[in-house]
């Protein structure tokens, strides 16, 4: 892997004229996530291939073989490290991850000052906080330093999200943009992947068993691969935002997997991105193959230049009409099943919008005409327009579940007040309580996208289990929080957890604080931190919030 000094030197020696012509963000007139409500763009490929740093772009034309600019038409961090360029800025933004987008910059926006590259690129050590109190770090789930060995076993060096759901006797764990052994000339970029794990409460961590689907070598392959076109040209990637297992309405007695995805048109301002559509995607063979359910598409642009091999049901000849005004606010989702219904929470692209909610009877999940939208005061209607806001803006990546211990529905998201904030409600549509901070930025300064483990839905125990992504390390942790430490009737920003110290992953492994499944021994972790403490992480609010 290239070291930081080499990459920094390359960045600083690229002529500004080259950068400004080949790496600029799309010249869109408006951004969904900026609150305009307008589509990102209505013509697929209208910006042309020159928006890429690939061979047809000006940066590639003079680049030597084997340089950072070498490669095909695909853009993205594992290809050339230049995923995004913020408007009006000479600084480069690296779209290293699914929903982290422009917050994951490798260069400052002021005077093109180069900042640290994500650790999964440089190979530098990530750190683990030594926590005492309500919340514990249970496991490193992914990454080159994870004892689960997702790098060598599944070619997963960097990834995020970790959306979990039960399917049969397995727990499925779904990830966003995923990268393999990232070298200047290599590209193992998959828009999404899925691992399988043993079912049940993960008191001893997620027991990863396999990848699905996978290559003949056993490496995780994409469920629905994005077109990987240049930022703003068409489709950068396809990101899962929600997933669930339900009875298959077309195969009585069988179950199917469903996920909601968003097609990303461009990453733009920090905390913002534009989409082409949201769609329901189905697998009826336990996750080995996936098809976009055409009628479920909520289209906000007329993009149709998807990657060859993308499967549609019944086909992509008769797509739903583009309706940006209607579907702008419904591009990201969270699922919860209750009372014979699938409830779907929806937010606009980005991290700044509110959440609305729809429901559909389980047997009609594939029929968009059967959905009802909550209008407030106990009223549900078939018209999605002017739906009632159930969670006020800003709502970031969202995860919702029923928790038997609290006898409440719980919703996790990130907020300025806490990287993991939790609300509770008696009904899926609320009213929802004010947020209680479970994890603050002293604990994980650069984290996002908390995703609830399905065992937390039915467990009568006091612990809530969830994954958490970090955009600096660009990998996924499993955390556990003792809910009995909080009074959700009187929520506060007190996370009830003390950060004693930090230790690098390498030192934790050497000290035997992490076993072969990635499970962390808190006592040994604390002892390792006493012997070789890591430098404190900077406590700073990531851009875009």
What does this molecule look like?
With 545 residues, the chain is mainly beta. Helices cover 10% and strands 30% of the residues. The chain has helices at 4-13, 16-22, 58-61, 119-122, 150-154, 324-327, 455-458, 505-510, 522-531; strands spanning 127-133, 135-140, 161-167, 170-175, 193-198, 208-211, 237-247, 255-267, 273-283, 291-293, 298-299, 312-313, 332-338, 341-347, 356-361, 372-376, 379-381, 399-403, 408-415, 418-425, 436-439, 447-452, 463-470, 475-482, 497-504. Strands 7, 8, 9, 10, 11 and 12 form a 6-stranded mixed β-sheet that branches. Strands 13-14-15-16-17 form a 5-stranded antiparallel β-sheet, with no helix packed on it. A 4-stranded antiparallel β-sheet has the order 2-24-23-22. The longest helix is centred in the N-terminal third of the chain and has 10 residues, at 4-13. It is globular and about 65 Å long. 55% of the residues are buried. Mean pLDDT is 79; it is low at 1-31, 33-124 and 540-545.
Layout of SSEs?
Elements: H1 4-13, H2 16-22, H3 58-61, H4 119-122, E1 127-133, E2 135-140, H5 150-154, E3 161-167, E4 170-175, E5 193-198, E6 208-211, E7 237-247, E8 255-267, E9 273-283, E10 291-293, E11 298-299, E12 312-313, H6 324-327, E13 332-338, E14 341-347, E15 356-361, E16 372-376, E17 379-381, E18 399-403, E19 408-415, E20 418-425, E21 436-439, E22 447-452, H7 455-458, E23 463-470, E24 475-482, E25 497-504, H8 505-510, H9 522-531
Parallel strand pairs: 10-12
Antiparallel strand pairs: 1-25, 2-24, 3-4, 4-5, 5-6, 7-8, 8-9, 9-10, 9-11, 13-14, 14-15, 15-16, 16-17, 18-19, 19-20, 20-21, 22-23, 23-24
């Amino acid at each position: 892997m290239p070291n930081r000094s080499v990459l920094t030197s390359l960045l600083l020696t690229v002529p500004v004229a080259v950068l400004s012509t080949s790496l600029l963000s799309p010249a869109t007139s408006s951004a969904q996530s900026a609150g305009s409500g307008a589509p990102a763009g209505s013509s697929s490929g209208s910006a042309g291939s020159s928006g890429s740093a690939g061979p047809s772009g000006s940066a590639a034309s003079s680049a030597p073989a084997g340089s950072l600019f070498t490669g095909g038409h695909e853009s993205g961090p594992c290809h050339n490290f230049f995923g995004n360029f913020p408007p009006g800025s000479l600084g480069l933004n690296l779209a290293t991850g699914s929903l982290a987008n422009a917050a994951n910059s490798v260069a400052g926006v002021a005077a093109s000052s180069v900042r640290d590259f994500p650790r999964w690129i440089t190979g530098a050590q990530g750190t683990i906080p030594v926590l005492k109190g309500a919340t514990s770090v249970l496991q490193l789930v992914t990454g080159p330093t994870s004892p689960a060995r997702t790098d060598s076993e599944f070619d997963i060096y960097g990834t995020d999200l970790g959306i979990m759901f039960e399917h049969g006797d397995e727990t499925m764990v779904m990830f966003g943009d995923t990268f393999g052994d990232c070298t200047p000339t290599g590209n193992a970029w998959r828009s999404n992947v899925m691992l399988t794990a043993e079912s049940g409460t993960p008191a001893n961590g997620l027991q990863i068993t396999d990848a699905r689907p996978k290559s003949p070598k056993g490496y995780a392959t994409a469920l629905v691969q994005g077109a990987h076109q240049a930022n703003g040209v068409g489709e950068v990637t396809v990101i899962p935002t929600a997933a669930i297992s339900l009875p298959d309405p077309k195969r009585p007695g069988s179950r199917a997997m469903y996920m909601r995805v968003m097609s990303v048109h461009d990453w733009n301002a920090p905390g913002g991105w534009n989409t082409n559509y949201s769609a329901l995607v189905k697998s009826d063979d336990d996750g080995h193959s996936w098809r976009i359910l055409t009628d479920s598409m909520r289209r906000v642009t007329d993009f149709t230049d998807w990657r060859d091999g993308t499967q549609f049901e019944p086909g992509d000849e008769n797509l739903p009409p583009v309706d940006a005004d209607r579907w702008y606010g419904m591009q990201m989702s969270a699922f919860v099943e209750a009372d014979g219904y699938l409830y779907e929470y929806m937010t606009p692209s980005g991290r700044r919008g509110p959440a609305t909610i729809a429901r559909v009877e389980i047997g009609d999940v594939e029929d968009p005409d059967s959905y009802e939208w909550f209008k407030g005061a106990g009223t549900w209607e078939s018209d999605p327009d002017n739906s009632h806001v159930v969670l006020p803006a800003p709502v970031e990546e969202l995860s919702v579940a029923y928790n038997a211990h609290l006898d409440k529905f719980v919703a996790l998201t990130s907020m300025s007040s806490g990287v993991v904030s939790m609300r509770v409600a008696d009904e899926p549509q609320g009213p929802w309580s004010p947020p209680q901070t479970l994890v603050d930025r002293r604990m994980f300064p650069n984290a996002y996208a908390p995703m609830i483990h399905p065992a937390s839905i039915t467990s009568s125990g006091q612990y809530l289990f969830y994954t958490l992504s970090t955009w600096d390390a660009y990998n996924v942790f499993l955390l556990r929080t003792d809910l009995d430490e909080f009074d959700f009737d009187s929520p506060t920003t007190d996370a009830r957890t003390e950060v004693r110290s930090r230790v690098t992953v390498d030192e934790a492994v050497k000290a035997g604080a992490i076993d072969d499944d990635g499970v962390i021994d808190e006592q040994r972790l604390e002892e390792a931190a006493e012997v070789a403490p890591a430098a404190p992480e900077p406590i700073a609010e990531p851009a875009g919030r």
